[in-house]
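$ run holo --ligand "FE2/S2 (inorganic) cluster" --emit tokens
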Amino acid sequence: MMYSEKVLDHFTNPRNVGEIPDADGVGEVGNAKCGDIMKMYLKIQGDTITDVKFKTFGCGAAIATSSMATELIKGKTIEDALKLTNKAVMEALDGLPPVKVHCSVLAEQAVRAALSDYYARQGIDPEPIVGKLKDVDHDHDDGDGSCSCG
Ligand code: FES
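-- output --
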């Protein structure tokens, strides 16, 4: 499998790894089939994401995409973070192999899940703002509900 240099860089040297104990929003998403889990922590002041950290238990592409996603939203407004797509994350990483596209969807959805939590904590219904969270299951499997792409 061919990874771009940027993917390898973010995989071997991921940015913003860790937790934020007093986070304003925490999102966790998982992929039922490969079992990969991504947890995203946001610190928000006004409408700006002042800090972001993540923990990913998963494949190399899941680590690289969550690392890149944190870089793309750090210091940005909530509005900008809501516009972050898995496509933008992939482009910033110079692409991903087709079987790894779903890993970038996990990163996109982890950011959205954390923003949903941020609104929910304030008693605001997140769905009209953040939208429905996507089903982040694999778009493929090896026929028995599992995959060997990890
Ligand atoms: Fe499941 Fe990458 S997130 S293989």
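-- notes --
Residues 101-121 form the longest helix (21 residues).
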